[in-house]
C-alpha cells in the first residue's frame, strides 16, 4: 500500500495544471466575410476591451484573455463585436 501511495504522489507532482481556456463567441452573417473584432466583452464581470490603434486582433484577444474573469475550471467566455 505504501508503494502505491508513493507512486500516486510522484504522478501528482509530475502532472501539470490544465492550461486556461478562453472561449470567444462572435456573430457572423451567412455569405459575409469574417469581420475583424473591434472589441471583446466579459459577461461575468461586465469588463470590456476595445481594440487600440495599431493593435492586431490576436493582440486584443491575448490582452483580454489575461485580464478577464475565469470560472473555477479556468475557463473564460468572451463575446466579440465589431
Largest sheet: 4 strands, mixed
Instruction: Measure the end-to-end span.
Output: 59 Å
Helix content: 25-40%
Q: Helix count, per DSSP? A: 2
Please give the number of β-strands.
Answer: 4
**In which order are the strands of the major sheet placed?**
1-4-2-3
Q: What is the approximate shape? A: elongated
Strand content of the residues, in percent? Answer: 15-25%
Low-confidence stretches: none
What is the H/E order? HEEEHE
What structural category characterises the helix and strand content?
alpha+beta
Tell me what you see in this structure.
This protein is of the alpha+beta class and 82 residues long. Helices cover 29% and strands 24% of the residues. It contains two helices and four strands; from the N terminus they run H-E-E-E-H-E. Strands 1-4-2-3 form a four-stranded mixed beta sheet, covered by helices on one side. A hairpin with a 4-residue loop joins strand 2 (39-42) and strand 3. The longest helix has 13 residues, at 2-14. The radius of gyration is 19 Å and the shape is elongated. It starts with a helix and ends with a strand. The mean pLDDT is 88.
Give the gist of this structure.
The relative contact order is 0.27. The protein is built from two helices and four strands, in the order αβββαβ. It is an alpha+beta fold.
Question: How are the elements arranged and paired?
Answer:
Elements lengths: L1 H13 L6 E5 L13 E4 L4 E4 L6 H11 L7 E7 L1
Parallel strand pairs: 1-4
Antiparallel strand pairs: 2-3, 2-4
Based on the model shown, name its key terms:
single chain; 82 residues; alpha+beta; four-stranded mixed sheet; 2 helices; 4 strands; elongated
Amino acid at each position: 500500500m505504501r508503494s502505491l501511495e508513493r507512486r500516486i504522489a510522484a504522478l501528482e507532482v509530475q502532472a501539470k495544471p490544465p492550461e486556461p481556456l478562453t472561449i470567444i463567441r462572435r456573430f457572423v452573417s451567412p455569405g459575409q466575410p469574417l469581420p475583424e473584432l473591434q472589441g471583446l466583452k466579459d459577461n461575468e464581470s461586465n469588463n470590456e476591451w476595445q481594440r487600440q490603434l495599431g493593435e492586431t486582433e490576436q493582440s486584443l484577444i491575448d490582452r483580454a484573455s489575461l485580464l478577464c474573469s475565469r470560472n473555477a475550471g479556468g475557463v473564460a467566455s468572451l463575446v466579440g463585436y465589431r
